[in-house]
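Re: the request from the purification team.
They wanted to know what the chain is likely to look like in 3D before they choose a buffer screen. I agreed to run a prediction and write the result into the notebook, where they can find it.
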Amino acid sequence: MVMYQKTMAKNGRHEPADVTNNIATLSGIVLQVFKRSSHGSQFHSIPEATALLQVHQHVLLAPTSFLILLNMQPLKVNNSGFQLSPVDMVLFNDLRNGKEQLKKAMKAFRKQEKVEDNA
């Protein structure tokens, strides 16, 4: 994970940020994409989209799109991926099953921001 923050200078640049106390101050978050395997809690570091080239895939997220919730460290971590604990796998499935509700909440949040900006 790499975090970026815009400097305060006029026409400020986006520079890497090692630490932040407030996620809203970030301008972007770069994350590595992992593909869930058919073996339950296993996740692979090379998703299908880049499997032919055998390279990792990354995504740039806005800070408002970042959500993380883990109860414990992944059980196994190596170059090919990682394995979530059974407790965290339940959380993963709950978030995945609630994806549509999360999308609706994000849409309502953006709508709320527009109303406040126009006020």
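For the purification team: The helical segments are 86-97, 99-118.
Please add any questions underneath this entry.
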